[in-house]
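Input sequence (124 aa), recorded before submission:
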Amino acid sequence: VQVAESGGGLVQAGGSLNLSCTAPGLTFEGYAMGWFRQSPGMEREGVAAISSTGSTTHYSNSVKVPVTISRDNAKKILYLQMDNLKPDDTGRYYCAASGGGYHYPLRVADFDYWGQGTQVTVSS
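Predicted structure, token format:
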């Protein structure tokens, strides 16, 4: 199963980014999905997750800027809208799929398939 993120880049502090994730070959609507991030020297941490139907979402308390996770099951795309970004939000952002749901706080171990990540760099 291939999971692919896009939409990262360089943005100034206060700016916004909308990340996307697709998973060709995955029965998308049957999987809970999540976003994680990892900064150099740090452990991978959860950002947000969404149930398979999109009816339930969870956000990590460690994320201090406004973020919104959403999904379009018809298009098989997962999104992460991030606003008012700060330099501390710099990192590699990963999309992940879970066939068995997830726990909160978000745990890496709950997710079965991962993308290669997309880099987000926020300049001050």
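Checked by second reader. The chain has a mean pLDDT of 96.
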